Here is the input.
Amino acid sequence: MPPAEHPEFVGLIEALRAAQETITGARPPEDVARKARENLEEITRLLSPFTVGESEQLTGQMRGLPGRAQALAPAFHVDVEGNDRVSGRVVFGRFYLGGNGAAHGGSLPLLFDEVLGRLANTGGRSPSRTAYLHVNYRKITPVGPELRVEAHFDREEGRKRYLVGTIRDPEGEITADAEGLFVALRPGQP
Ligand SMILES: CCCCCCCC(=O)SCCNC(=O)CCNC(=O)[C@H](O)C(C)(C)COP(=O)(O)OP(=O)(O)OC[C@H]1O[C@@H](n2cnc3c(N)ncnc32)[C@H](O)[C@@H]1OP(=O)(O)O
Here is the structure.
């Protein structure tokens, strides 16, 4: 079903992202922490009866939405998308903090896999999977400001799709770049 038919679920994921952000940055007194935990446990109780299999779940399936309605990777906002390149924006929020204002090193491959992987499978191409992802950390990727993300196909060799991408800080400097190999799946390959 298209996202428009699940506006409340989309709102739920946005609320989840907001909760992740707020919890990460909070230092609450014990009684407030306990109340927040009880509220989260209540959410689990509420939703557990509606657990479905992978093919039926909504999370991750809504390609038209930033972040595909999943709260794992930072939401990638697409500005321009073609068959061979994509550009857009991302904010690494407090949830993705590694330390000293820098995004966690593991969160960058998460974003690159999302951006490059999405592009690798566009333009009528068959599904592919990440075979490798090489990330260069050039300078810290700051938590908080909006960052530019660009990616494009470098080359295709048979089933092998080589893509590259960059993240730039508000000054336009590259904080990280990546090269990924995505291998097109053979029929029946999981
Ligand atoms: C919309 C949002 C999109 C999000 C996208 C997210 C994408 C993902 O994260 S997918 C999940 C992460 N990736 C995986 O789980 C993949 C796990 N690995 C696999 O399934 C397989 O190893 C797979 C499909 C990558 C390749 O296996 P297989 O299809 O058997 O390919 P295989 O025949 O061995 O190799 C094909 C070619 O690729 C090359 N190759 C394969 N893996 C690598 C590698 N790691 N490094 C270099 N070359 C490689 C081979 O050398 C071969 O080259 P050539 O044709 O020149 O001889």
The mean pLDDT is 96. Residues 67 and 101 are 22 Å apart (CA to CA).
